[in-house]
Amino acid sequence: MDYYSSFLNGFRTYIRSVVYGGTDGIITIFAVVAGVSGAALPSGVLLILGVATLFADALSMSVSDYLSSTADAEKELVERNAFGRDYDSDTHLIHTDLMRIFRNKGFSKAEAETLTQIIAGNRELSIDLMVLDAENCSPPHRPLVSALYTFMSFVFFGFIPLALYILLLPSPAPTITTTSGSDFSVKVTENRVGLEWTFYYGTGFTLMTLFALGILKGRLTKSTVKSNWWNGFQMVSVGGAAAFVAYLIAYVLAALEGWAKSGADPLVV
Predict the structure, then answer these.
(1) Number of H helices, E strands in the chain
(2) pLDDT tens column, 87-104
(3) Using one digit for the tens of pLDDT, what is the confidence trace for 212-229?
(4) Can you give the residue range of the structural domain that contains 51?
(5) TM segments (predicted)?
(6) For residues 51 and 159, is the Cβ–Cβ distance under 8 A?
């Protein structure tokens, strides 16, 4: 139980990377699947484009997370050095800052004075408190670990729309055509109806996963039950909207391309 609690607390440190990576991963790939389906492109195109996008975007986002986390760490180091100089040169200023911190946390004046007297004697603890209290500063974490969480979360959640598509992908249907005499040929074509149903199943499962990801976000941030449900609906709304836009644009562009080639009405299938 202690190991589980320790792991969960450490995991919460990187909740931003997990949620951002997972959300961006599943929504990005879901939009790719929706776009390919809207354009009625072959399943091979979907898989190639989906997998390539999955790993390229995962790498890009993890590098961005690393650079952002490194910048935060550098900012924190500057803050620590500044507070360290204040601690070494101006004891009265340190006492004043600690008093303000504790008073803002709701402690009485007597309690704040007691805590200040105890903590002010510990240099590192005093600096830690002042750094955490500074605007836009957060608890320290390792940039490389944060980037790895982002990459793994992006790949894991982003693979869900593709994985279900692979599992439910219908087999190609052979079509036999005959010519004069006994000659015949076999042409393998995709079952478009089966592909459409695969997309529908995948959409439902992906939306459920988005809802679960929103619930996970709420649980890890210790939100209320009502907030957990709201987080889930937010994830579903954003993911659904992105997929709808991708599907609609791909459908219209594919129809326009067909119209340009045949001269038919572009919106009549």
Answers:
(1) 9, 2
(2) 888 778 888 888 888 888
(3) 888 877 776 666 666 788
(4) 2-68+143-257
(5) 26-56, 148-168, 197-216, 236-256
(6) no
